Amino acid sequence: MEMKPLFLLLLSLAGSALAGTPYEIQDILTGNSPSASRSKEWKPGSGIPLEVSGMDWTAEGKLALAIRKGEVWLVDGVLGGDADKVKFNLFATGLHEPLGLLRDGDSLLVTQRTEVTRLRDTNGDGLADEYLTAGRGWNVSGAYHGYAYGPRRDGKGQLWVTLNVDMGEFSDNKAAWRGWAGIINTAGEFEPMAAGMRSPCGLGANLAGDMFCVDQQGTWVPTTPLYHLRKGAFFLNPEGIASQNLPESPLKLSAKVPEKIPYPEAIKALPEMCPPAVWLPYNKMGRSGTDLAVCDAKGKFGPFDGQMLVAEFTDAKINRVFMEKVDGEYQGAAFPFLRGLASGIVRLLFAPDGSLMVGMTSRGWSSLGTKAYGLQRVRWNGEMPFEIKEMRALPDGFELVFTKPVDAKACGTAAAYSMTSYTHLYSGAYGSEEIQAEAHSISGVTVSPDGLTVRLKVEGLRALYVHELHADGVRSAAGAKLEHADAYYTLNRIPKK
Amino acid sequence: MNARALLGFLGLLWAVPLQAEPLVVAFERWGATQPSAEGGRLLYNELGCVNCHGGSTGLPARRGPQLAGVTQRVQPEWLRSFLSNPAAAHSGSTMPQFSSLNAAEDVEAVLHYLGGLATKPTKKPKKVGHVNAEHGKELFHTVGCVACHAPAKDFQPAEGLPKPEDFTHPAIAFPQLQQKYGLQTLAEFLRDPLQARPDGRMPRIDMEESDALDLAGYLLEFASSDGETAQKIHPFAVDPALALRGRGIVAAAGCSSCHELPKEMGAVSVALQSGAGGCLEGNAGRKSPQYQLGAKQRAALKLYLAQREKELPQAQLVELTLQALNCAACHERDGRGGPDAARKAYFQGDHNLGDTGRYPPPLTGVGRKLQPEWLNDVLEGKARVRPYLQTKMPVYGTATGGLAALLSKVDARSEVALPGGDDAAGRKLMGTQGGVGCITCHRWGGHAALGIQALDLSSLGQRLQPGWLREYLVNPAAYRPGTLMPSFWPEGKAANSEILGGDTARQIASIYAFAKSDNGEPEGFPAVSGGEFELSPQAHPIVQRTFFAGVGTHAILLGFPHGVHLAYDGKTGRPALAWRGRFFDAYATWFSRFAPFEKPLGDAVVKWPSSGGETVRFEGYRLDAQKVPVFLLKVGGAPVTDRFDAVDGGLRRTLSGAAPALNALGVTHPAGVAVHEENSDSKETRIFTYLWK
Fold this sequence. Notes:
The complex is a heterodimer.
Chain A: E1 23-31, E2 52-57, E3 63-67, E4 71-76, E5 87-92, E6 101-104, E7 107-111, E8 116-120, E9 130-135, E10 148-153, E11 159-163, E12 181-184, E13 190-194, E14 202-205, E15 211-214, E16 224-228, E17 261-262, H1 263-269, E18 278-280, E19 289-294, E20 308-312, E21 317-326, E22 329-338, E23 345-350, E24 356-361, E25 373-380, E26 388-394, E27 397-402, H2 408-411, E28 418-426, E29 434-440, E30 442-447, E31 453-458, E32 465-470, E33 486-491
Antiparallel strand pairs in A: 1-25, 2-3, 3-4, 4-5, 6-7, 7-8, 8-9, 10-11, 11-12, 12-13, 14-15, 15-16, 16-18, 17-28, 19-20, 20-21, 21-22, 22-33, 23-24, 24-25, 26-27, 27-31, 28-29, 28-32, 30-31, 32-33
Chain B: H1 3-7, H2 25-31, H3 37-46, H4 49-53, H5 70-73, H6 76-84, H7 86-89, H8 104-115, H9 133-142, H10 177-180, H11 183-191, H12 193-196, H13 209-219, H14 240-253, H15 295-306, H16 314-324, E1 332-333, E2 336-337, H17 366-369, H18 372-379, H19 403-411, H20 423-430, H21 460-463, H22 466-474, H23 476-479, H24 504-516, E3 534-535, E4 542-548, E5 552-559, E6 564-569, E7 574-580, E8 584-585, H25 587-591, E9 603-607, E10 616-623, E11 629-635, E12 638-647, E13 650-657, H26 659-665, E14 673-677, E15 685-692
Antiparallel strand pairs in B: 1-2, 3-8, 4-5, 5-6, 6-7, 7-9, 10-11, 11-12, 12-13, 13-15, 14-15
């Protein structure tokens, strides 16, 4: 064998995660730690340790950032496009791991471990001088996992807060409201609304004003769920259910919490249990969902107005969720959206200009990306991505709406699609495999005359199962492949017509 | 064979030659332009010729990888393709091709024989953790992998991508790693390559398990973060009959000349007939292993073989050893070696230290610079003094066994002895209190330097030889071109004439004596503070919430510049603890995942007893113009404010509110302080002073 040395310069493969997507990631400020994210000796690098844990816009258009060490910063110029011109001004200090921030009139509300606090600058010197208790009433044990998140406002103006269950030393999940969501009432007290959460790290209302929250895979939670929060609902994790015996509880489980049975059976065994509106399957959609942001960018973020972007920690990526109502209940589909962010994403917030702010910190766990924390911004460059924009359930299948007209020939054949469905085991174990997986045959495909909609007739739909679609054969009229050909529909209910 | 498939991996910046010719990097770098006997000696050793044909090159033994367990480390499918054509499966491989493995069934038989050498797993396979291939990419391009292997195009070094033409010599190619390894076995290999390849040609860089996984994830282009989903090594079932036949093939081929195999497979010794013919003419006999030697390689080997009985001067032996182990990829010695212009871009470190902060030190005269024990410790990975270099000095195992002694011998010369030193004077010289201030730039043990963070001098007495130190200090730039280190004894004249009368030799001897002694540290380090995150109130009070022992989960700490401090309980709305001295170390509250209930840093802690008074509702606090928080309370629905100020030797507390509310509070006072209530004109204000006794 005689081969001449070849000196080839090849195109990059590994760094092309973003090639093709019209969503560009811009660094505002990111930083590294000299130690690994799980290290006991973790410390930040030089500069502001921008472990973003809460974000909102002030009345003056500054970005208010809560960071985990307990500070609030007001950031000027983030939308200017030049990261060097961004100015950071310290607004509040000494807080106890604030994990959420919301502007309320001339104040900022932050949720510390122990309370919601109203921060206000009354003398105009740019620094908060009022730190007033604005919400309280849950137990804090000192366990590291006893995080508190929010507040976020729903369509009725109610302020919602979510509370982790405790884990580790000092844990006390029998004490008040661990693993619950609630509102802060006018007396400044936590008013419990819904139970059954594990680590409900982010919340937000959709355009209709209904409140949702993202929980995380772990004990009793097989994979990341998105809950529609409302009074009296129980979701998945019963570790904090003891609080149902407190007088303020809006909920009393009428049956024993089942265990080690498939999720669709568990739902039947426990009447108060409400299914998540959407499941985000493990690994396929990342691992730990952390926040949601509803797109209301009036077209400035592409074709996804009204949809949710869901932040994910471990894989440092952002997924997209489309929801519809079937029989009055939310359900819908999750789609991959964007990967390649710098660190574990904890907060998402749309900017007034339709770009998306991404707040990150990987401390305590680990994430993809090369930074330990920071702030990035995602902008749409105006090119229409070729994606499955919406996926709706039909009595006998699904309807796919695309962002661009499809090639009727390529997409008109059942071979262009494949579908499986599965559920999870409901148990106290940490996460669950996908179980009872089945392939579905696609028995009919109809492409709409405008090429934007495809109806799939799918055999054997199963209520309460996740239906995973691969539309690998789909091509746009221009011959392009989908940027993401997979979609995950949580079919809680099969529409009757 | 699909050339693109072989190269498609990683998108390499510097293309790796797709070649059947075995690659010995140092030969390509220095030996190929003008064939020489030395280059031939290097090849004779590095291609393993010496392992069958005998003689002594004086160079560290070049061996093949461990074969026991190879089917558990490497995919059997890949082994098949490698055995049948090593150079096609791994470009530039030094493993020759064997004509006895031309038939697929013979390859299969050998594979089954190798499968039978499997090692018993000692423990249950561990769960594969989190994988971050992006981080792996960063490691690959910074810790030193690219000194030998090709960097990828999509990694941008700080000063930009080097030009392809600046690479002066080829890089060592990878096989198709995705076909060869599983994620976990590649990570295990990377964590300690010396296990599988004890000959040290792939040295070990000390790294965490998670770093090895990230690195493996990068090399395998593993996109997910969940290592459990990665490809594993396919189980291989051994057919004993085939294995027996394979054993015969292995024995006949003399594999054990290079590879460690069971004893009964004794090495084959083949006397060389002459310095010509066979491999050297590019037509080895049908039975011989086939090396696809290039013309220059053949020429060099001939030159060497013509005089192979001749002993090589030890200085040249050192040079060839550094070439064989590719030390020369990173280190320059006597004007030769070190990274080429292109690869320099990947050597990063502390830019405040200039070139010395990023490039490994030169090895010129290293045998007289370092003490032999220290040099040996460096080679064994026990001693490292340049944590700021991102490129890590690896460990070569037994291959460097005699290297420290050889270097000491070759570099030795007669040294001018230092006079007796005075270690007290040395201590003064190194400090900033009237000395030359070494610690301004150099670390000392656990102490950070005062300015830039140059290497730790606390081990200087164990590390350096006095004769070299004396010359170096008089003219550092002569020994470390580009160093920021000035001379404090320019042309031999001491800049400091106060200490020891400005006697250069005695001053240097004293520095050496002090460094060797156990007599403390140089003067001038700042007084020890708690830690990087200790809160020390300066102009204003500091407020910090935390979990606090003796207070609970709602503690609000208040530190005053005057050295008196308070912990207020935000749950009960009452003061809880006060103390004096240092305030608080915020490290765990700010940055620990498992923050404990914290404690005061100071002393004289006093505690307020609990009150039988009315339940207080805590409403927050307001900072006044002096940034003192005024705590806002409701007592029976009526507003009360509680304010603390620092006074000489204690705290002053002002409670304000309607008289009934103040009365209902049931004010208590800590034991251990003198309590004095000031007379107040108003019934709506009560003022207490607490002074430590």
